[in-house]
Design brief:
Helices cover 37% and strands 15% of the residues. It is an alpha/beta fold. The chain folds into 2 domains: 191 residues, Aspartate Aminotransferase, domain 1, CATH 3.90.1150; 247 residues, Aspartate Aminotransferase, domain 2 (3-Layer(aba) Sandwich), CATH 3.40.640.10. The strands form 4 sheets. A 7-stranded mixed beta sheet has the order 4-12-11-10-9-5-8, sandwiched between helices. Strands 1-2-3-15 form a 4-stranded mixed beta sheet. A 3-stranded antiparallel beta sheet has the order 13-14-16, covered by helices on one side. The protein binds pyridoxal-5'-phosphate. The site of pyridoxal-5'-phosphate has 15 residues, from α4. It is found in: Cytoplasm.
């Protein structure tokens, strides 16, 4: 594979963009390939190399790079018509109604421009609604580039995880280990009166893919209810992917007070949203007092793309297709790992998948184990070895993924997410042949 063009572009980029990129995960080693165009489930780089794409824009591209005709047509027509106004449009109402109809927790929704903006606004909303300051988050959880949640530490003390954030911000944030019922109960015992909300992804989707153990999300629901705190599910990554149109909250049967969205709900364009019970969401200005506003919020092109995206999914076998291929990949990779690298854990659900390079695990693969990705099943022989928290994923062989494995897969024309933490996604454009080709590459590279 030749990468001369990408190399030359990266050379130029390094002079004018910090790290040569506009989002940190894109700076793959030794230099990223620059995409020239997408084609279904594939991307083609500046040197004409073609890869099977499982990055899928880091989540938004449910249909791959050629969305259904109705999406294309709606995007073209709204772009040509305005493209935006600073006055409301019908398509914002269409998308809001659709989301409210399908997602259990949502009666009302406010659209914004990124997942980060959604979680920032949700935290402000929770604080405004409850009159309390403290937010509980999961260690290793991700809520975008926002000051209140970029923290590290333990329930006993948190510090900002990035320079540039005053430590006083972290004073109001309590990080706890995911899946640890004792830890969250202790936090509520001590701080229950001051906690505005628990903000968590229902599945940790940006640090491996960590599913909740049985009863964990239910316990979060009980604790927040008992203490008059809000439960916020950050479904930016799981929304309209895990559990289909009802999202992960529908799949797990746990209904939060507030949900944040992003990624898929914008049909490939910049988006975020905060949805929930109307008495809470109506606290946003101008209905209420919690300030929230945005020049581009509810952008007609984005709203149209999102609406047509979701409508198409409601009327076609989209989730059936992506989930079936996701299952095939997880099962296939599990078999390869059992043969070649039994310590590794295959994770994921629905159309999300990842291999965590865990350092130990049961030996010969003959035991009763989950055969298509970790389900956090207590009777599974691997249960104690499978990641339960963000720390378990950080403790894996993260360097091996980044420095060796990712490159090996790229050389075999498979585009995976560049580090051990980010999820990979199957789109409606992927085929059984793509899966077979991918499994061959895993067999050689693992
Ligand atoms: C991607 C993501 C975000 C941030 O969304 P941006 O659009 O990148 O700002 C927040 N939360 C979760 C769970 C995400 O996966």
């Amino acid at each position: 594979m030749n990468h001369d063009e990408s190399r030359a572009l990266y050379d130029r980029a390094l002079s004018v963009l910090p790290g040569g990129v506009n989002s940190s995960v894109r700076a793959t080693r030794p230099y990223p390939f620059f995409v020239e165009h997408g084609d279904g489930a594939h991307v083609v780089d500046a040197d004409g190399n073609r890869y099977v794409d499982y990055v899928m824009g880091y989540g938004p591209l449910l249909y791959g790079h050629d969305p259904p005709d109705a999406v294309q047509a709606a995007v073209q027509s709204h772009a040509a018509d305005g493209p935006m106004y600073g006055a409301p449009t019908e398509v914002e109402v269409d998308l809001a109604e659709f989301v409210a109809r399908h997602v259990p927790s949502v009666e009302m929704v406010r659209f914004v421009n990124s997942g980060t903006e959604a979680t920032v606004s949700a935290v402000r909303l929770a604080r405004g609604y409850t009159g309390r300051d403290k937010i509980v988050v999961m260690q290793g959880g991700y809520h975008g580039a926002q000051e209140s949640t970029l923290v590290e530490g333990s329930p006993d003390g948190a510090e900002p995880s990035s320079p540039g954030i005053p430590s006083s911000f972290a004073e109001h944030t309590i990080p706890v280990p995911f899946n640890d019922t004792d830890a969250i109960e202790a936090v509520f015992e001590e701080h229950g009166e001051d906690i505005a909300a628990i903000l968590t992804e229902p599945i940790l989707g940006n640090t491996g893919i960590v599913l909740p153990v049985d009863g964990y999300l239910e316990r979060l629901r009980e604790l927040t209810e008992a203490h008059n705190s809000l439960l916020i599910f950050d479904e930016v990554i799981t929304g309209f992917r895990v559990g289909g149109l009802q999202c992960a909250q529908g799949k797990f049967g746990v209904t939060p007070d507030v949900t944040t969205f992003g990624k898929i709900v914008g049909g490939g364009f910049p988006v975020g949203a905060i949805g929930g019970r109307s008495d809470i969401i109506e606290q946003f200005t101008p209905a209420g007092e919690v300030f929230q506003s945005g020049t581009f919020s509810g952008h007609p092109v984005t709203m149209a793309a999102g609406y047509e995206y979701l409508k198409y999914a409601a009327e076609n076998d989209v989730y059936e297709h992506v989930n079936r291929l996701g299952e095939r990949l997880r099962r296939g990779i599990s078999e390869i790992a059992a043969d070649q690298a039994p310590a590794y854990t295959v994770v994921g659900t629905d159309s999300m998948f990842k291999t965590v390079f865990t350092r130990e695990g049961p030996g010969d693969g003959s035991e009763d184990v989950c055969d298509a990705g970790c389900r956090q099943r207590e009777s599974c022989a691997r249960f104690d070895h499978c990641p339960k928290t963000g720390a378990d994923v950080s403790d894996a062989e993260t360097e091996r993924w980044e420095r060796l494995f990712w490159q090996e897969m790229k050389a075999r024309a498979i585009f995976l997410t560049a580090n051990q933490f980010e999820s990979q996604f199957v789109s409606y454009a992927h085929t059984d042949e793509d899966v077979e080709e991918t499994l061959e590459a895993y067999k050689e590279a693992l």
